[in-house]
Design goal:
This protein has 152 residues and is α/β, with parallel strands linked by helices. The chain is built from six helices and five strands, in the order E-H-E-H-E-H-E-H-E-H-H.
């Protein structure tokens, strides 16, 4: 699976071992940065390009990491076609994909350690969208909202 990965300074320390673990697991990873620790950088500068790549199908799934994961989630969800969520526990890591077709996982680099983050990433990547009628209906309602204020 081709994965996109992005982090600002708040997620940089977690991004690097996640990047290595993904590559060691055989995934092709596109690194959207940050490529060095810069306390003055801004999460939208990395998350928006990642989110666009997810929306355009240039990567199959995305992972964004900032300090809490909140800002990364806000930014990612501004891009039409992205269904992002901040995840810190295993149920939502798979349920978000299975029921809601989540395509971009957000993590808090200052909230979860590597062991939990890696577990959540593996669960997220192993999950598959169920495509049930009720899920399709719900996603259509959400997609209808995307034309207002979204970044293309």
């Amino acid at each position: 699976m081709q994965i996109g990965l992005a982090a600002d300074h708040g997620g940089f320390v977690l991004k690097e071992p996640i990047l290595k673990a993904l590559r060691d697991s055989g995934h092709e990873v596109r690194d959207f940065g940050a490529h060095r620790l810069d306390p003055g950088d801004d999460y939208p500068d990395f998350v928006i390009p990642l989110a666009r790549a997810v929306a355009q199908g240039k990567v199959e799934r995305g992972i964004a990491i900032c300090g809490s994961g909140v800002g990364a989630s806000f930014a990612a969800n501004k891009v039409a076609g992205v269904r992002s969520a901040l995840i810190h526990e295993s149920f939502s890591a798979h349920q978000g994909v299975e029921d809601d077709d989540m395509n971009l996982l957000c993590l808090g680099g200052r909230v979860v350690g590597f062991a939990l983050a890696w577990e959540l990433v593996q669960i997220y990547l192993a999950a598959h969208y169920a495509r049930a009628e009720r899920f399709e209906r719900r996603l259509a309602k959400v997609a209808a909202l995307e034309g207002k204020g979204k970044i293309e």
